[in-house]
Structures are given as C-alpha cells and as structure tokens.
Design brief:
It is built from 11 helices and 18 strands. It is α/β, with parallel strands linked by helices. The chain has 3 domains: about 200 residues, FAD/NAD(P)-binding domain, CATH 3.50.50; about 80 residues, D-Amino Acid Oxidase, subunit A, domain 2 (D-Amino Acid Oxidase, Chain A, domain 2); about 80 residues, no CATH class.
C-alpha cells in the first residue's frame, strides 16, 4: 500500500492546477487519471481571458486562435455581430492544453500516474483509501477533479442531482473563411445554444441542451449545420456527447473532511454558457490555498467550502438566474441584445475578469425602462439603482 499527503483524482485543468500549486510548495502529491495523456476531450475548447490569472507561464503558446468577432443568430436567421478590440476568448485543442497543464504539474514535482483507474474511494479512519487498478493507495487528503460523473463525489460527497446540461461536439478538418469569428445560434436549443469557431486549422462545432432534451442532440446539431450557410458542409464525423456540470443553486456542498471537489466534480460550471475551464482552474487554485493554509482534514474542507461559497458560487448563481430569464423567452432577449450590441461587448469585461455577472446585469438594468427593467431585476434578484435610491428615501 502506498501513502501520500494528497492524491488528486483527475488530471484535467482543475486537478493539474491544484497539483502544480501544491507540488511547487513542497507537498507530496500523486495525480491519478484513467486516461493516457495526451487524450481527446469532449469540449468546446474556448478559454475566457480570465483563465490567464490561474495558468502557468507560457499558456499563450497553447492558443490556436484569438476570437475578436462574434456573430449571433436566432434559428439561423436575423444575424448581428459584435467586434471587440481585444480577444473575447482563445481557442485550444484540449488534448494539447490538458497535457501541457499536466506536464507543468509534473515539472513542479507532482507524481503522475495516467492510465490508472480509481475503482472506489472510502474512508479508512482519519485517511482516505483509494482502490486504484488493483492496488490500494492511502492519502491524508483527496482532491476530486474527476469530472461531472466523479467517483470521488459519489463515494464521499455525493450530489443530489445529475449534471443539468448535455453537449455534443465535433471538430472538422475544414477551412474557416471567417477569420477570428465565432458563430452562436440560439432559439431552438432548450436551455442551450449552438456554436462554431476556429481552432487553428480546424473548426469546433457543437450544441448544448438541457438534460431533459438530450435525445435531441444529434437532431439539433444537424439543424444547426443545415441552417447556417456560413458553416462547413457535411455532417462532422466522430461527434461525441458529454455532460456539462452546470451549477444549480442549493445543490449541496463541495467538500467534506479530507475531501475537496473541484471543477466539474463540484458542479462548478457556468449554467448559462457551459464554460467550465475557468472555474476548474479557479477552484483548483482555491483548493491548493486551503491545503497550504494547514490544519486537519476538517479544517481544510471548511476553509475551502467557505472560499468557494464566497467567491465562485455568487457568480454561478447569477449566471443561473440569467440563464433562466434568457431561456424563458429567448426571442425577446435576442431582439433586445441585437439593439444593444455594446451590452454584449461589456460582457468582454466579465470574460476578462474585470467585471462580475452582477455588475453587468446592473448596467443592463439601467438601459431598460419601466416595467421591463423591474421584471428583469426581480427575476435576477437585483433592483435598479434608482429604485434602491427611492426605497432609501421612503425610509
């Protein structure tokens, strides 16, 4: 039986970030993953600029394309565009990007065992026992970074709901004549949307739907491809589906004594866009901070849970409210945003980490008049500035 201070289960962005930070500080860390790296990953592969704050030096060399223009459509019609003076996001090939992050963790001193399947996780006194490909591994602390269907979460910190979203994604080896442009289509994708953007010499195409509509993924992707003349012809081969672990308010904790869940394993993905890499790396960094601050497993779990609840959850909670409002009446929102393209450009501040979802919504409410602004504000849990001022004067 082998023993380690910290075992990280899952070598994606969340696990590699936590392992790199811990190993660099002198903690003995073992990283386990079922797959052999580099490995393919079902993902859009789009990074928001705010990822830079949690990434090791040299990440820019992993970028394939910087997206500066976005074209939005409703059921493949009524397109409008926004053009930014800085990248709205960057695209990467996940098999390259994840392998690079894992190599950075190894360079910092983390021990890496890919191709090692974790079969069970259970408590063994004050330690955690993992059954890994026929052998037993004991750890003082386990970080569950093993995705939306986390075996660590299932064994030690279970969720009370399945991942709420599903995505179908493919890459096409086809020319993309639209430069640094992403295409986004809404209106016929319950609780989701369809996308297409360049990743170097390839095109990443996909669709996201609410879990209840998962059987319509293939149909939705086919309709998106058929309805947009700007997209490459033909149906992409090798399209694969995967759960998207969107956050749901009140969905339970992300830690227990000796166990920290990060990234998709903790349901820390944007329920509006489905973005997960940023929150994976952010939570991985918070987990490392909690461990390095010291204490026993209970103290570390409490510290991490408090950090996530005070920083990540408020953002994801607001993203969930925005998603609810948008999907209640997508046509209305599409028309509104098409008339306020600068509002979408302000979203670049959120993607860059310079603005919060709450701050962005407050700016939007200032632009909405009368009953419309009140209706939106009530559903998002934010009163417009002038209404708060009136309330104070009444008191």
């Amino acid at each position: 039986m082998s023993a380690h201070e910290v075992v990280v289960v899952g070598a994606g962005p969340a696990g590699s970030t936590a392992a790199r930070r811990l190993a660099a500080a002198g903690v003995r860390v073992l990283v386990l993953d079922t797959a052999r790296f580099p490995r393919p990953k079902v993902c859009g592969g789009a990074l928001s600029p705010r990822v830079l704050g949690y990434a090791p030096a040299g990440i820019e060399r992993q970028f394939r394309t910087g997206i500066r223009r976005a074209v939005f459509s409703y059921c493949a019609a009524q397109p409008f565009e926004v053009v930014a003076d800085r990248p709205l996001g960057y695209t990467v090939r996940r098999e390259e990007f994840d392998f690079w992050l894992l190599e950075r963790a190894a360079a910092a001193g983390a021990a890496i065992r890919d191709g090692a399947r974790v079969q069970a996780v259970e408590r063994d006194g004050e330690r955690i026992l993992l059954r890994v490909s026929g052998e037993r591994v004991r750890a003082r602390l386990v970080i569950g970074a093993d995705g939306a269907n986390s075996i660590v979460a299932e064994g030690l910190c279970p969720h009370d709901h399945p991942p709420p979203l599903l995505a179908l994604q493919a890459e096409m080896a086809s020319p993309w004549p639209h430069g640094e442009t992403a295409r986004v289509d809404v209106g016929r994708y319950p609780r989701g949307y369809a996308w297409a953007f360049p990743v170097g010499d390839r095109v990443n195409i996909g669709v996201m739907l609410g879990r209840a509509h998962g059987r319509r993924l293939e149909e939705a992707l086919a309709r998106f491809l058929a309805g947009a003349a700007c997209l490459p012809g033909g149906h992409p081969g090798g399209a694969k589906a995967a759960p998207v672990a969107g956050f749901r308010d009140g969905a339970g904790g992300c830690a227990a004594p000796g166990v920290l869940l990060v990234g998709d394993a903790a349901r820390l993905a944007d329920p509006f866009l489905g973005e997960g890499i940023y929150y994976a790396m952010w939570s991985g960094s918070l987990a490392a901070d909690a461990v390095l601050a010291g204490g026993d497993g209970e103290a570390i779990a409490g510290r991490y849970g408090t950090a996530v609840a005070g920083t990540i959850w408020p953002e994801l909670r607001m993203a969930g409210r925005i998603a609810f409002c948008f999907h209640c009446m997508p046509r209305w929102w599409f028309r509104l945003l098409s008339r306020l393209p600068r509002g979408i450009l302000r979203y670049a501040g959120v993607l860059a980490g310079e603005e919060s979802y709450r701050g962005l919504v407050r700016r939007l409410l200032v632009r909405l008049e009368g009953g419309t602004g009140r209706w939106v504000g009530e559903r998002l849990g934010i009163a417009r500035k002038e209404e708060r001022s009136d309330s104070k004067r009444c008191k």
